[in-house]
Write a structure and sequence with these properties.
By secondary structure, the protein is mainly α. It has helices at residues 12-20, 24-46, 54-66, 68-87, 90-99, 106-117, 122-161, 178-193, 199-215, 219-237, 251-261, 267-274, 284-301, 307-330, and strands at 7-9, 171-173, 244-245, 248-249. Strands 1-2 form a two-stranded antiparallel ribbon. A two-stranded antiparallel ribbon has the order 3-4. A hairpin with a 2-residue loop joins β3 and β4. α4 (68-87) crosses α6 (106-117) and α7 runs antiparallel to α8. The chain is elongated and about 85 Å long. The protein starts with 6 loop residues before the first strand and ends in a 5-residue tail after the last helix.
Length: 335
Amino acid sequence: MTAFSIFTSPSPYILQRRLYHSSSSSINLQDSLMKNCKVGVFWMQRLRPFSLDRRRRRTLICAVNQDAEEAFKKTVEVDRLIDTLRDATPKELDKLVVENVLAFNEGFWIRLAARTDTCKSEDDKKDYEELAISIMSIVDRLVHKTKEKIESSTDVLKGILKPVIDDVEEIAWPPRNPEALILMEKEITQREQEGQLDEGFLSEINAQLRQAKEDGDKPGLEAMLQKVLQLYASKVLSKRSYAKKGEEVLKTEQFLETIIKAHEEEWNKLLINGLTIGKGEVSPEEFSAVAKKRIERTLIRTEGGSYQQRVLTEYLKGIQSRAEEIVQVLQGKPR
């Protein structure tokens, strides 16, 4: 994380339009699920026995033989899932569909359609058709619930950014009004206490950041979203302190926590005044050790691969990296 300069960001209209968009990663999941459901409808309705001329059959057999074992394994897995779904009660079916939602791809629907088409009795065929309808209905409900959650996360982000968005033609970062940043920080504190800053919220910011970087002409928006993540990380990490061991105050831990609570723009001054290479009492080696230990603690206490884990560890690594840069500068070493 680097210090932010003053950038000119997009007009309020563009920003508001961007914030009304859902998380792209979740949208991709929704689109994929709906597309696969449509594929399922197509194959359930249209798949029929077919014949091949001898030359095409021979070519097809050769192609299949190249990867026959892998194809067989996949077919067995799909058949096992279909059998499990078919034997499940309505309550069990809901749970199974949610747990295996990514398995309902084009291959699944083709296989289900093929099994439906080769049924020897109309009753069995009807069972498969009803199963397909039930799965599509559950997936549809899941998509709508996901969409509602994304919209909620978008509203939370819009509420946090509202203090720094005014009606002027261009939005500058940092905000022209210093009070706006204070209000934004208060908004983050309140929503964090209410439990609104969850994985969906972090996913939304990640999607907005990725889109802003891809556009390449929204540095102000990037800086604004990065600031939200920094404030979030600061609030969450500050909830747990390691600065006391019994009655003893661990000065290095306390120094790290002081920086964690501070704005990124204040890090340089704090590090210079706190490290022994500058004006302080904490050696660079001691500070590096406690920063590394805090990162390890964060990795243990957060869910692996989650957005929260990524945001918190990147924030701590940003502090660690800034300290190393300060040390190099004060030692006169080239960066």
